[in-house]
Write a structure and sequence with these properties.
CATH architecture: 3 Solenoid
Number of strands: 26
Radius of gyration: 18 Å
Number of helices: 0
Structural class: mainly beta
Distance between the termini: 25 Å
Strand content: 25-35%
Strand order of the largest sheet: 1-4-7-10-13-16-19-21-22-23
Order of helices and strands: EEEEEEEEEEEEEEEEEEEEEEEEEE
CATH topology: UDP N-Acetylglucosamine Acyltransferase, domain 1
């Protein structure tokens, strides 16, 4: 499989791109970012230096991925989503006499989006956190804390409101945001996968089809 890079894209020397990946119009990828196989990077998106992107990842249009971000395999980042990497950003030094450098420093905080997770359109992702496997962030949400595996989070700031399947179908809606039931069992009506929850931990009861 060949890599396809649109003529208007700016992919800097030193960027690693896997086979079958498509880089679309007016994308900017800075070195030494790494992008895996069979990915899609949508038009006018930006991928900063040092970013690591796994295989079969989809970035829709106008996505901003800053330094310190890792996207594992199968992650989807919908249009207009923004990552951050500094909790207390300033443009200049305290005396206003010099710009702060853009390179990572002691204030740069990492973010990891684990395999299979989805970030909804125009979501804003804080830093120094992890979004769990197959978690789902609702469109327009502002994520300020880590998200457990398979949890659905919504709002400003985002809070857990339910559980979703690997396929994305909702499995369970919490009676109160942020408070999953002590125990439950559910089978996905869309794909048939079964899950059990106990003391806040989710277990898959069978392999994916």
């Amino acid at each position: 499989m060949s890599t396809r890079i649109h003529p208007t894209a700016h992919v800097e020397d030193g960027v690693s791109i896997g086979p079958g990946t498509c880089i679309w119009e007016h994308v900017h990828v800075r070195a030494p970012a790494r992008i895996g196989a069979e990915c899609i990077v949508g038009e006018k998106s930006y991928v900063a230096y040092g970013v690591t992107i796994g295989d079969r990842v989809k970035l829709n249009a106008f996505v901003y991925v800053c330094t310190g971000v890792t996207l594992e395999d199968g992650v989807m980042v919908a249009a207009g989503s923004v990552f951050t990497n500094d909790r207390f950003p300033r443009a200049t030094t305290p005396d206003l006499r010099a710009l702060r450098p853009s390179e990572p420093d002691e204030a740069t905080r990492p973010t990891r989006v684990c395999a299979g997770a989805t970030l909804g359109a125009r979501s804003v992702i804080g830093c120094d956190l992890t979004i769990g496997r197959f978690a789902m962030v609702g469109m327009g949400s502002v994520v300020t804390r880590s998200v457990p595996d398979f949890h659905l989070v919504l709002g400003h700031p985002a809070r857990s409101v339910g559980i979703v399947c690997r396929c994305g179908e909702p499995l369970l809606r919490f009676a109160r945001a942020g408070q999953p039931p002590e125990s439950f069992e559910r089978r996905c009506r869309a794909c048939g996968l079964a899950y059990a929850g106990e003391a806040g931990k989710l277990q898959e009861l069978g392999p994916p089809r």
